[in-house]
Automatic annotation (TrEMBL):
<protein>
    <recommendedName>
        <fullName>Reverse transcriptase</fullName>
    </recommendedName>
</protein>
Amino acid sequence: MVNASFKGKEKLHAFLSEKEHLSTANKLNEFFTRFEVGGSNAPAPLWTDNTVTEDSLVIREDVVQCVFESTRARKCPRPDNTSGRDLKHCTAHLSGVFSSVFQRSLDTQELPLPWKTSTVVPIPKISHPFSANDYRSNSLTSLVVRALEEIIKAHIIN
């Protein structure tokens, strides 16, 4: 049985040509990226002082494993093609690698470029959207970076 709203989408897409689909996609892209500032991809420092103190964060493998295990498996793949299922079911193998990558990232004050990218997905606010204002944006960021953020947040709070 086909959902009634899905039938409407089929009818709508049947009347639109490929050129109109591309035009709509380009308009949405311009709308959602209107606030982005063009510029260099140079990494911004996370902090200015490189000295290690007793409060400095040291990423441990068991902490990374705990955060990866708490990831919801049904999360869709993100811009870096890492899915929640991958992180959840392969924590024993991935936690050692990512703990050293996280630590190096903190020590050098840089994030790898794929971790800085996100995919913006337009989600309709109403059943039949007509303009770009009828969509809300949903930004899909890397689950690996979200795990790092969770570790840093826990360190700051404690």
